[in-house]
Design goal:
About 70% of the residues lie in helices and about 0% in strands. By secondary structure, the protein is an all-alpha fold.
Length: about 300
């Protein structure tokens, strides 16, 4: 990603930061390609009402949402290799690590429920085998490459090119905490929190959705802590992309959702928050860039 900082920034500040390693950039691109392919299959097949995934589900909506989240974040992951510094991509890469490690852990915890263990037709069995193998490989790579990234010499960035406006910070705090809280609940106590999901879910479904909710919370709160729109460009693309993909799945499979329930209303507000945060962030960033060019 090109540096959009003011040309008058001192050389010492411009030279600060931690360089983004090639391994982390390659990981993001590899996950983007896999997410695009697998996410498209999961989303499109489950939108037809046919349950398809690595494990059986009581309703196709949960697997469809997992696919939507993968598909929605893929375009943002493709932009990571444009970043010059780790600070310009970490608000997306930390959530990526949460997803890879979390989904792999969920798959292992529910190993007896996978098609590869339960048996079934050849397609879901092979898909579940590829799911576990690919997630395991990517999770190990994420741990190793992010550890190496943090060992790379670097310094904190001294300048914020486009600080967040004050009015946005309480909203981002509420949005991020909401996703983080529900994600932690679904992941750690799926038997209890799955009852609040406004459609039928199994244990593995609840935990997989919890991983994605946790990652969204980490991303939103990470952007709040970063306090710089210029450093959150990939995340600003991921938020509306994920929100839009989730909206499509919920709209098509609307009959599976209990829309009269409180959790359904909360979900609508949280998804709308993703769309608004991403869209408004990109508008504010464009205005800040225009002002910088004008000066």
């Amino acid at each position: 990603m090109a540096n959009t900082s003011d040309a008058s920034t001192p050389a010492s500040a411009a030279a600060s930061g931690r360089p983004l390693t090639a391994g982390v950039a390659m990981l993001a691109t590899a996950v983007a390609v896999i997410s695009l392919l697998v996410g498209s299959v999961l989303m499109l097949v489950n939108l037809t009402g046919h349950v398809f995934g690595a494990w059986p589900s009581p309703d196709s909506l949960s697997q469809g949402l997992v696919g939507a989240a993968m598909l929605g974040t893929a375009p943002a992951l493709f932009t990571v290799n444009r970043a010059r510094l780790w600070q310009e991509a970490r608000t997306l890469l930390y959530p990526l690590a949460v997803v890879l490690i979390g989904l792999f852990a969920v798959s292992l915890l529910n190993a007896k429920g996978l098609y590869i263990a339960k048996g079934g037709s050849i397609v879901p069995v092979l898909f579940s085998l590829g799911w576990v193998f690919t997630l395991g490989l990517l999770a190990v790579a994420a741990v190793a490459l992010l550890a190496w990234q943090h060992l790379t010499p670097g310094t904190p960035l001294a300048v914020r090119a486009a600080p967040l406006p004050g009015w946005s910070k309480p909203l981002l705090a509420v949005l991020g905490s909401s996703w983080l809280g529900i994600g932690a609940g679904l992941l750690t106590r799926p038997g209890f929190w799955a009852a609040f999901v406004p459609w039928d879910t199994g244990r593995a479904d609840a935990q997989a959705l919890g991983v994605w909710a946790l990652a969204l919370g980490v991303g939103v709160l990470g952007s709040l802590a970063e306090d710089d729109l210029d450093r959150t460009r990939p995340a600003l693309l991921a938020l509306p992309g994920t929100g839009a993909a989730i909206t499509v799945v919920l709209a098509v499979r609307a009959t599976s959702v209990d829309w009269s329930s409180g959790p359904a209303l909360s979900l609508v507000c949280m998804v709308a928050g993703l769309l608004f945060a991403g869209a408004s962030g990109r508008v504010l960033l464009a205005r800040s860039s225009a002002v910088t060019r004008g000066t």
